[in-house]
Design a protein that fits this description.
The chain is mainly alpha-helical and about 290 residues long. It contains 14 helices and no strands. It starts with a helix and ends with a helix.
Length: about 290
C-alpha cells in the first residue's frame, strides 16, 4: 500500500510536467500565427514603435489586405499558386498511384531495384541538382513557363508519394484484387474502381504534403520563374519577396504581413479539414513500405 501511495504523487507530477510541456508547445506554435494576424491590421508606425502590442481596435487597417490584393498584385500571384498547386497535386497523385500500384501488386524482374530507385530521389538534395537542372530546363526551353515548373514539382514530389502509396497498396487485402479479376475486370478497371478508392487515406496524405510543399515553395520558383517578362507567372512566395517595394519603392510592412496571412490561410484550412487522414496514411505507408 505504501509503495502505491508513493507512486501516485510521482504520477501526478509527471502528468503535470507533460501537460506543461504540451501547453508550452501550443503557445510556441500559436503565438507566431496570432502575432502575424494582428500585426497585419496595424500601420507601419505601430509595427515599428511597438511590434508586439495589439492594434488600435478603433483603427484596424483592413486596407492592408486590399492593398496586398491589388497594389501588391496578390490576386494574380494567388491565381498562379492555385493553378500550379492543383496541377501538381493531381499530377503527382495520378503518376505516383499508378507507379506504386505496379510496384506493390506485380512481380517482375527489377521490381525492388525500381522501388529503391524512386527512394533514391529522397536522398538527393535539391541544392545539388539545381545547377544541372537549370541548364537542362534552359536547353528544353522550359524556363519561365508554367509547364517547366510543373514538371519539376511533380518529379521532385514523386519519390515520397511512391514510397507512401506503395506501402499503402501493400496493406490492402489482396482478395479484393483477385475477386475483381475473377469477376472479369481487367487490371486497369480493378485499379480505378476498387484499389484506388480504398487507398483514399494514403492519397489524401500524399495530397496534403504535395499541397504544402508546392504552395510554400520558393527556391525552385525563384530559379525558374524569375526571368525577364515572367512577372505574370510568379507565385505567392515570389510575390511576397517583392511586396515591400511596390509602393513607390517604399517598404509597406502592413501590406507585407497581410500578404503573409493570405499565404498562410489556405494552408491552415486544408490541413484542418484533412489532418485526420495524415497520421493514418503515414503510419500505414511507412510500416508496409
Amino acid at each position: 500500500m505504501s509503495e502505491i501511495s508513493r507512486d501516485k504523487p510521482m504520477a501526478i507530477v509527471l502528468k503535470s510536467l507533460v501537460y506543461c510541456a504540451l501547453c508550452s508547445y501550443l503557445v510556441i506554435v500559436l503565438f507566431p500565427m496570432l502575432w502575424l494576424l494582428y500585426t497585419s491590421l496595424k500601420t507601419d508606425r505601430e509595427i515599428f514603435l511597438d511590434p508586439f502590442s495589439l492594434p488600435a481596435m478603433d483603427d484596424l487597417q483592413w486596407v492592408n489586405f486590399a492593398n496586398a490584393w491589388t497594389k501588391g498584385f496578390f490576386g494574380d500571384y494567388f491565381f498562379n499558386s492555385v493553378l500550379l498547386t492543383v496541377a501538381t497535386v493531381l499530377g503527382s497523385l495520378l503518376l505516383s498511384a499508378m507507379a506504386a500500384y505496379a510496384l506493390a501488386r506485380f512481380t517482375f524482374p527489377g521490381v525492388r531495384p525500381l522501388f529503391f530507385y524512386f527512394l533514391a530521389g529522397l536522398m538527393v538534395p535539391l541544392q545539388l541538382a539545381i545547377v544541372p537542372l537549370f541548364f537542362q530546363m534552359k536547353d528544353f526551353g522550359l524556363l519561365n513557363s508554367r509547364w517547366g515548373i510543373l514538371i519539376v514539382y511533380v518529379a521532385f514530389g514523386m519519390p515520397f508519394a511512391v514510397f507512401i502509396l506503395t506501402g499503402f497498396f501493400k496493406s490492402l487485402p489482396s482478395g479484393l484484387h483477385e475477386s475483381a479479376l475473377i469477376d472479369g475486370a481487367g487490371e486497369f478497371r480493378a485499379f480505378w474502381s476498387i484499389m484506388l478508392p480504398l487507398a483514399r487515406p494514403g492519397l489524401i496524405t500524399v495530397g496534403i504534403f504535395s499541397f504544402l510543399s508546392t504552395w510554400n515553395e520558393f527556391f525552385m520558383a525563384f530559379m525558374f520563374l524569375s526571368g525577364e517578362g515572367s512577372q505574370h507567372l510568379r507565385t505567392l512566395p515570389l510575390g511576397l519577396a517583392n511586396i515591400t517595394i511596390v509602393s513607390q519603392y517604399r517598404s509597406d510592412w502592413g501590406m507585407a504581413f497581410a500578404g503573409l496571412v493570405l499565404i498562410m490561410t489556405p494552408t491552415l484550412v486544408v490541413y484542418g479539414f484533412l489532418q485526420q487522414y495524415l497520421t493514418k496514411g503515414i503510419t500505414v505507408g511507412a510500416l508496409k513500405g
